[in-house]
Give the backbone structure.
Amino acid sequence: KQEVTQIPAALSVPEGENLVLNCSFTDSAIYNLQWFRQDPGKGLTSLLLIQSSQREQTSGRLNASLDKSSGRSTLYIAASQPGDSATYLCAVRSRGGATNKLIFGTGTLLAVQP
Amino acid sequence: DAGVTQSPTHLIKTRGQQVTLRCSPKSGHDTVSWYQQALGQGPQFIFQYYEEEERQRGNFPDRFSGHQFPNYSSELNVNALLLGDSALYLCASSLKPSTDTQYFGPGTRLTVL
């Protein structure tokens, strides 16, 4: 059974700092891994999607890496801003299913202090 | 182009009641998935609908049921509500069940008293 874990559960950093969020999964048989952002009480916004054959994806100040063999992914945020404050969720799409069902971690609550 | 919409935004029910939540997928999408997100947790997959049929189901009891209409919109029904059903219910739509790209709606916040 696939399980996804995110560490740390919460993180507070001063504005301008670079930071790394961690995600681990127990079964390496995945199609892909996604990072989402969720503002309080809101839906999810997809940030980056990494296919199982890829090692990393970049979008602006965000860079996500994937090491499928070790079951780990990191989300790197450069030059953090107060507007980056949100919960960040990672999710995997496991192989073997007929749908795009996602298995989520519990998220990292990020606060960027001005 | 409207994204995924959900109604109502908020809902308060009492234990034992029944509730229906609604989702309209993004224009052009034919597949709808439902997720339950308890406070402080990640979303958990409830089920997915495609071609008006349930295609895959997560680990949820039969009290949770759904429907998809010919226009691809979907309903989530929960019977005999429990306090533990209090959560944010998210709908996601995609073009076909296996497509990687999914769009999530804003969710419906259900509170069971």
